[in-house]
Amino acid sequence: MMEIIKVKDYDAMSEKACEFLAERINRLENPVLGLATGSTPEGLYKRLIEKYNNKEVSFKQVKSFNLDEYVGLEKDDPNSYYFFMKDKLFDHVDISLENVRVPNGVAPDLNQECEAHDEAIKAAGGIDVQLLGIGGNGHIGFNEPGTPFTSKTQVVDLEESTIQANSRFFNSIEEVPTQAISMGIDTIMSSKEILLLVSGENKADALNKLINGEVTEELPASVLQNHPNVTIIADEAALSVASGK
Ligand SMILES: N[C@@H]1[C@@H](O)[C@H](O)[C@@H](COP(=O)(O)O)O[C@@H]1O
Hints:
Domain Glucosamine/galactosamine-6-phosphate isomerase: 11-227
Mean pLDDT: 97
Pathway: Amino-sugar metabolism; N-acetylneuraminate degradation; D-fructose 6-phosphate from N-acetylneuraminate: step 5/5
Shape: globular
CATH topology: Rossmann fold
Pfam families: Glucosamine_iso (PF01182)
CATH class: Alpha Beta
Number of helices: 7
Number of domains: 1
Order of helices and strands: EHEHEEHEHEEHEHEHE
Bound molecules: 2-amino-2-deoxy-6-O-phosphono-alpha-D-glucopyranose
Radius of gyration: 17 Å
Strand order of the largest sheet: 1-10-9-6-2-3-5
Function: Catalyzes the reversible isomerization-deamination of glucosamine 6-phosphate (GlcN6P) to form fructose 6-phosphate (Fru6P) and ammonium ion.
Structural class: alpha/beta
Protein name: Glucosamine-6-phosphate deaminase
Low-confidence stretches: none
CATH architecture: 3-Layer(aba) Sandwich
Number of strands: 10
């Protein structure tokens, strides 16, 4: 089941997503969240912090698992996803850092780290709500086109287009890591519920294929058609191709 909520713009998407997530956090006894990085969820995190400051939500009982992390970046590297999460959310709410897990991109044994991530998710009882963004090429997490739907958390090679897109955060393109640890497609699909946020015209093509196209490993996000409980909050620009159909 896929529900699509169309909103006007990025701000409206962030607002809706904040209501959606806060409702789950308040309702579930021990919420387990799957969290994402990138520009897309930044507005959502800002609003969640506001809601926390207004005492409308608390993260005391929340456990979280992040989707991905660059290989080779230390936790305190401003471009690491661990740093992003602390900077954009964790440092500003009452979540315990003991309850958050971002894959460790500098673990001595990366494969073992991938297994540990999946094991920790299982031990927590699985993910209640997985937040996702989407890459222009249809990637989710860092699962690039061609990634098997059966994949668990693993080390992945980044596509040139992804490196290019993410270079905006780095001083130069040479500094962008070429590999990452990413939750696998199967890991993501095992979540009880999925919330996908999409904003902007540059995602319109991928979103159209996800909604109207066939389910194929060539467009990793298309797998979401097979999930029983997906909500997509997308703005008008992101839906411009899909709604023209
Ligand atoms: N690994 C991240 C994804 O988790 C993210 O959803 C996507 C879109 O990023 P943005 O939201 O900045 O457009 O690409 C990045 O590479």
